[in-house]
Design a protein that fits this description.
- The complex is a heterodimer.
- By secondary structure, chain A is mainly α.
- Helix content of chain A is 74%, strand content 0%.
- In chain A, helix 3 (56-84) runs parallel beside helix 7.
- Chain A is globular, with a radius of gyration of 17 Å.
- In chain B, the strands form two sheets. Chain B has a two-stranded antiparallel ribbon with strand order 1-2. A two-stranded antiparallel ribbon of chain B has the order 3-4.
- In chain B, 52% of the residues are buried.
- The chains are: A mainly alpha, B mainly alpha.
Chain lengths: 217, 652
């Protein structure tokens, strides 16, 4: 039963990741991200339920992820979107259709790679590693293919979700250490990016990251 | 150790709160200085206790990622900690006065100063390679922040760049060295016993350490950043850099040679050779400088040379199985570390006060400053006498010990070592003479005569906040000059830790006692002469007037000897090694109008090695630069592709 719930949460996270590749509205991309974060936050709880009791550790992780990623980060992002008044990703470097295709290809690649990955112990679910890989790659694809800074931040966050899933592999070996590091890292990064986006917007009246090209050298 | 941890806590708190108070300039600087003083007050007694016979103290902990780590307070660390704490406290007080009298932001300065002192403490206390390197890096970066205070100026940015690139290049050597040592010892801890290295490996590791630590210490030819960075930093930062930060290089070298274990004779000999080169070339270049702080920076290179002569000789003596010689040599080197820290920071602080009052440190635009700033002049002269190694001041005591070690080496070492010791002896004597000439030039041209520019004529005495720390340092110089026997007691344990025999078994003890007696006699004679002068002049009116100019009434300041012309005869002798650059407009025609002569002494390593290398390297890298993508996205794509390829290669 819990096995199925775990797989459902992982698949949900994956699907939301792929969906965010196909949307042009930034608000929607942020929404997909926090829904995905909620699904990812369930994973440590489900893993532990599967192997017996629930530890404080898992609850802390769950609560921290919910507060930071499901509430805090989207709040900041939505605020910067409002302040910068951008609604849509107008001219992506790679079109939405092509992005979706590439995303599907990357998901396939992730499953192929995950099969090759030698692991010290069998993960809680066979889907854990492929989904983690996929989220990493989808996040990178978002960063590479979009031109608005906010969408790139969303890409970064999706990648971070993937890293979080990877960290869960080590849940027994390094309790707290890695996960807390990841959460902190993420919070700071979004904080800084929020400020940067705001300032780019203030200085140039838009948040198009093309303008950073002039910073070359 | 509680005291050390408390001091570090105080410094961290002071750094944080002075950064938070950045908007209120005076508060921020006061908190920063108070932190330095409190840390010194708390930690110095503890360090002194360990130095004078207290037990070695250790705090250790383990964590799963980095393994066993520790903070260790042993005699060697204590010896370096004491001057560091003392001088940073003095410099922080001076810096408060110095920065408050100018405009601009001070938050970074205030916080970075505390961070620098904290990281210096950690460097000396670190009991494992990881902590040492981390603290080393924090030290480098906080010193960078401090020295680029006036970063709006081009030459400040260039100096900062040189500093950070050279010290990072050095740090990469240190990483390699510590990795090599850790591989041999199977631990990153500094104290763990291990099998002795093979001779070749030991020499290789030592060479890496000498390059890495030599960059920081400013040993020739890795000294390039010193003459660039010291003049452009705020004066109290120059004092800290030159007095304290470069000494971490010496500390590292000593610590590394303890870790590597028995070294071949060639290592010590090479170090001695570098010492001779640094001392000679440093003082010669100093002689040819026209800017007061650049001149002082070159003297730092000279003094690092003297310290390296001591360290190199000590290491040679240990390899040759002469621990008695090693004891005197290490004692001289260690004492010179402290002495140079004291008098060099005194000199930089005094020079800073002159610079603040006259708005220039070009020696040929100063002159007659002693009349307006008698107290600053007196403290500069005390520092100058100390750095020249004149009794009864502290520089004399340590240089005397180095001479004694060289003499002992001439008597007791194998023949080849003897030859080098004789060479070092001659070089040291030459350096001493040239240093006196150089400071006669600096003191004479800056403080005596008539002002050469309106700014120099308008000089005012420095405020008390800046004079106070200068007096404290001057007093310390004088006190150490007279405290020979007490110093021998304090040197006992660090010297033993480095492998020497107890100093009581060597001639150093009598030597130090002799310096104290000589100093006392000199001071008594000086007082007696002053009393005699007063007695003789009791009944007569004394009037002050201008120098007699052979009856010529229309003298101008331009007719004085300039600093350059004063040094000219000596410079002419050493033209061969100085690479002088001369630009002149000679008189031409029957009615010559504009005539000019300029002579510069560029740093030969900078001019003939570094600049061409950077220039050609830049040309070569222009091709790479052209290929640089412009979009942020392309960078991420490149990383993405690289990661994928790597994964595929490992797993596919």
């Amino acid at each position: 039963m819990t096995n199925v719930a775990l797989d459902i949460a992982l698949i949900l996270a994956l699907l939301l990741g792929v969906t965010s590749l196909g949307t042009s509205r930034i608000g929607a991309a942020i929404r997909y991200f926090w829904m995905q974060a909620a699904a990812v936050a369930m994973v440590p709880l489900l893993i532990e339920t599967r192997s017996g009791g629930l530890s404080v550790h898992a609850w802390v992780l769950f609560a921290a992820t919910m507060v930071l990623k499901v509430w805090g980060v989207p709040y900041f992002l939505n605020r910067s979107v409002r302040e910068a008044s951008v609604r849509t990703e107008v001219e992506p470097l790679i079109g939405f259709g092509v992005s979706l295709m590439l995303g599907a290809g990357l998901v396939g690649l992730s499953f192929a790679l995950a099969r090759q990955l030698p692991l010290p112990q069998r993960p809680a679910s066979d889907l854990l590693i492929p989904v983690a890989f996929s989220l990493l790659m989808i996040g990178l694809l978002l960063i590479v293919s979009r031109s608005k800074a906010v969408t790139q931040v969303v890409g970064y966050l999706v990648m971070e979700n993937g890293i979080f899933l990877f960290g869960l592999l080590l849940i027994d070996v390094f309790p707290y250490l890695i996960e807390l590091g990841v959460l902190l890292d993420l919070f700071v990064a979004v904080f800084v990016m929020g400020i940067v986006i705001f300032h780019i917007n203030r200085a140039f009246d838009h948040i198009d990251s093309h303008q950073l090209d002039t910073l070359k050298d | 150790m509680t005291a050390m941890l408390a001091a570090m806590g105080i410094l961290a708190a002071a750094a944080g709160s002075s950064a938070l108070l950045a908007r209120r300039r005076s508060w921020s600087l006061t908190v920063s200085a108070a932190g330095c003083i409190a840390a010194a007050a708390v930690a110095m007694p503890a360090a002194l206790r360990v130095l004078l016979g207290g037990a070695m103290q250790t705090v250790s902990w383990t964590n799963p990622v980095t393994g066993s780590q520790a903070l260790v307070l042993d005699p060697l660390a204590a010896w370096f900690l004491i001057p560091v704490l003392f001088i940073s406290a003095a410099c922080s007080v001076y810096g408060r006065g110095y920065l408050l009298s100018a405009d601009g932001r001070v938050g970074t300065q205030a916080a970075a100063l505390d961070v620098l002192v904290l990281s210096l403490m950690t460097v000396f206390l670190a009991g494992d390679a990881l902590l040492f390197l981390a603290a080393w890096e924090v030290m480098t970066l906080s010193a960078f922040l401090l020295l680029t205070h006036e970063h709006a100026r081009m030459e400040v940015r260039r100096a900062g760049m040189l500093y950070i690139v050279l010290t990072h290049a050095g740090t990469s050597c240190l990483l390699a060295m510590f990795a090599g040592i850790a591989a041999g010892a199977a631990t990153l801890r500094f104290v763990a016993p291990h099998l002795p290295f093979a001779t070749g490996t030991a020499a290789g590791l030592f060479a890496l350490g000498a390059i890495g630590f030599g960059c920081k210490a400013g040993a020739w030819p890795l000294h390039v950043w010193l003459p660039a960075a010291h003049p452009v930093a705020p004066s109290h930062v120059s004092a800290l850099l030159s007095g304290v930060v470069i000494k971490t290089g010496i500390y590292g070298l000593l610590r590394a040679s303890l870790l590597i274990g028995p070294l071949p004779m060639a290592c010590g000999a090479a170090l001695l050779g570098i010492g001779i080169l640094s001392a000679l070339l440093g003082v010669l270049a100093a002689l040819a400088q026209h800017e007061l702080k650049t001149l002082l920076a070159w003297h730092s290179i000279e003094n690092i040379g003297i310290i390296l002569i001591g360290v190199g000789l000590g290491s040679m003596a240990l390899s040759a199985g002469r621990p008695a010689v090693a004891a005197i040599a290490f004692a001289g080197a260690l004492l010179h570390v402290v002495n140079h820290a004291l008098f060099k920071s005194l000199l930089f602080l005094s020079a800073g006060a002159v610079g603040k009052a006259c708005h220039t440190l070009q020696i040929d635009r100063l002159g007659g400053v002693a009349r307006a700033m008698p107290r600053t002049a007196l403290s500069f002269v005390i520092g100058a006498a100390a750095i020249c190694g004149l009794p009864p001041l502290n520089g004399f005591v340590s240089e005397f010990l180095v001479y004694m070690a060289l003499l002992a080496a001439c008597a007791a070492m194998p023949v080849t070592a003897r030859a080098e010791a004789v060479l070092a002896f001659a070089a040291l004597a030459c350096v001493g003479g040239l240093a006196v000439a150089c400071f006669a030039k600096a003191c004479g041209a800056v403080f005596l005569g008539a002002p050469r520019s309106p700014q120099a004529a308008a000089a005012r005495e420095a405020p008390r906040a800046m004079l106070g720390p200068m007096w404290v340092l001057a007093l310390a110089c004088a006190a150490l000059g007279l405290a020979g026997p007490a110093i021998a007691g304090a040197l006992e344990r660090p010297v033993r830790q480095l492998g020497g025999v107890p100093l009581t078994d060597t001639s150093a003890r009598e030597g130090l006692a002799a310096t104290a007696i000589l100093g006392g006699v000199l001071i008594a004679v000086a007082f007696a002469l002053a009393a005699l002068r007063r007695l003789l002049l009791r009944r007569q009116a004394v009037s002050a007037s201008g120098t007699w100019a052979c009856g010529y009434p229309a003298t101008t300041p331009a007719m004085q000897y300039t600093a350059a012309s004063f040094a000219r005869p000596l410079i002419a002798v050493f033209r061969g090694v100085l690479f002088l650059e001369r630009h002149d407009t000679r008189p031409a025609g029957a009615f010559p109008d504009a005539v000019a002569l300029e002579e510069h002494c560029p740093d030969p390593v900078d001019r003939f090695v570094l600049e061409p290398a950077l220039h050609h390297g830049g040309m070569a890298l222009a091709l790479v630069r052209r290929a640089q993508p412009t979009r942020v996205q392309s960078y991420v794509l490149a990383i993405f592709a690289a990661l994928l390829a790597l994964l595929w290669w490992r797993l596919g």
